[in-house]
# Entry
Amino acid sequence: MADINPRRIAGIVLAPVVCVALLVTGVIALLFGYGLTGDMTMDHADVDFVYLLGTVLVCALAAVAAYRIAGLLWARGWWALVAVLVPAVVFAILQLDERFGKWESGLVWLAGLAAVLAVASVLARRGLLRAAWIVGVLGVIVVADVAVLVQLWSSSGMDGEEVVMLDRAYAPLWLLFALADYDFGLDPASWHIGDSLDLREVGYPLFSMSALGYVVRAMRGEPKLPAAEVV
# Structure
């Protein structure tokens, strides 16, 4: 018991709190930004790219903030990985009673996120921080994309006044369409698919990036002190 470090325990216990707090803060910031820019830029063609870039920026800031906070809390070890997944597990359980592909989407996201964080953790533990970040970020994007695809696979949209099925040929782009709230002229029925996702298109990558930042810092190997010279 003497080896137990209260600071490390705090880093593990607070991991879910930190990730959820960054998720809520990021979503509020995005919604606030949308509210400020909506009336001024709604008629501009590049407004969709502004929203998309805003989401990317908030996700990046969340990852950096989680990384720094994990360092301040002295979070270390595999228990940090388990801890950051707790909110994701709770979310997936809460989705089990949902319909329209939501519970399948939640389970796919949870499984994918766990796999991505595990791989990033192994890389970070071996000192390959750049590889951990690259693999982690790409994995987060792919997992969020697949989770959105699973939810919307059997969904329909509006093409003018006609209800039509979403064009599955563009399924890998549905996350992009939802984040930009625009179909880029490819599938008019997918113009407003973000309305059926209930902010999952933002929540999935935002929470995942926060968890990634926290885990990479927690699993990062400490620099070894130089060996003492023998006189």
Summary: The chain has eight helices and two strands. The first helix runs from residue 6 to 13. Residues 88 and 137 are 17 Å apart (CA to CA). Confidence is low (pLDDT under 50) at residues 39-45, 223-231.
